[in-house]
């Protein structure tokens, strides 16, 4: 089985695969731009253009879409099921590999049979640029489980909370003796990294008069706060650091309010996802948080661990 392991987020699409026994980890912005309808005679030949023709419409995806126009909002209802085939095709195209199995993940709030079956049907077989993509095996995992298995690949008797900070939502899950305790599962819509990103965008607009997109702001924050606007380079690192502190205080206050002593008495508290980069060091030390290396890829590494058994 040759598996493509994915973590399609509302900010970045992360994926991984084994090549010559080595794990390859890659990502691109979750950006999709609709260019317009494709003529019946207009079908891009795979590999000759960045454009993708899917279900009669021309699109640009990822980095190519980043500068091409206004991307479709990832907060649009049903974004991932609708556009997952385009994102998956880009992963395969960029990897230069062929796969017969795929692993995807969904938010805890969406981890329901109906949603899972709809997503499986949508991505198990589709056609882009005249090329048929098919997978004999499709695995759907809840967000956060990959993080748990990344940090604890072997069974542990510890009580572990996992905080998966995505772009829109924070998914919180709990495991005891290696088994999920669903009564403690929580979703915190609106507490993802888009919360801090919107604050940063507003402060940049107040200082420069320039409005940047959420995707641009997300990339800028990961680069340490530097961005070039109208030919001039700005350094917003001090703004970002203060917003990180405010964001972390808000998030963990909400978690503690929701879970009470259960949160503080757990053996381990893991924080990962793209938001793992936005937790100040003092919060990590004060709350004894485990933040894995390259936290945005933690789900991908963990899902691979699950498939490898």
Automatic annotation (TrEMBL):
Keyword Protein transport applies: no
Keyword Magnesium belongs to the record: no
UniProt-listed SUPFAM superfamilies: Actin-like ATPase domain (SSF53067)
Actin homologue MreB-like C-terminal domain ranges (all copies): 162-285
Domain of life from the UniProt record: Bacteria
Coiled coil: none
InterPro entries per the UniProt record, alphabetical: ALP_N, ATPase_NBD, MreB-like_C
Swiss-Prot/TrEMBL keywords: Plasmid
Location of the Actin-like protein N-terminal domain: 7-146
Protein name: Uncharacterized protein
Species this chain originates from: Thermovibrio ammonificans (strain DSM 15698 / JCM 12110 / HB-1)
């Amino acid at each position: 089985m040759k598996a493509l392991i994915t973590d399609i987020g509302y900010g970045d699409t992360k994926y991984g695969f084994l090549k010559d026994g080595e794990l390859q980890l890659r990502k691109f912005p979750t950006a999709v731009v609709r260019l317009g309808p494709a003529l019946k005679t207009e079908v891009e030949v795979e590999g000759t253009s960045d454009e993708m023709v899917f279900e009669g419409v021309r699109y640009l995806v990822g980095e190519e879409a980043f500068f091409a126009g206004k991307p479709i909002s990832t907060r649009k209802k049903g974004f991932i099921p609708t556009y997952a085939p385009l994102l998956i095709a880009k992963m395969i195209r960029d990897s230069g590999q062929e796969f017969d199995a795929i692993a995807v993940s969904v938010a805890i709030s969406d981890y329901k049979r109906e949603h899972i079956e709809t997503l499986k049907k949508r991505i198990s077989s589709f056609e882009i640029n005249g090329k048929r993509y098919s997978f004999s095996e499709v695995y759907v995992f809840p967000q956060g489980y990959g993080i748990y298995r990344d940090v604890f690949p072997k069974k542990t008797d510890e009580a572990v909370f996992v905080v998966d900070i995505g772009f829109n939502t924070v998914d919180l899950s709990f495991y005891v003796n290696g088994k999920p305790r669903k009564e403690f599962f929580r979703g915190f819509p609106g507490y993802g990294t888009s919360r801090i990103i919107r604050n940063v965008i507003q402060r940049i607009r107040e200082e420069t008069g320039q409005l940047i997109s959420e995707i641009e702001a997300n990339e800028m924050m990961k680069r340490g706060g530097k961005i070039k606007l109208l030919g001039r380079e700005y350094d917003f690192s001090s703004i970002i650091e203060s917003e990180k502190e405010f964001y972390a205080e808000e998030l963990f206050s909400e978690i503690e309010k929701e879970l009470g002593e259960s949160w503080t008495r757990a053996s381990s508290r893991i924080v990962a996802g793209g938001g793992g980069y936005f937790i100040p060091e003092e919060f990590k030390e004060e709350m004894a948080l485990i933040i894995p290396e390259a936290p945005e890829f933690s789900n991908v590494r963990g899902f691979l661990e699950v498939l490898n058994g």
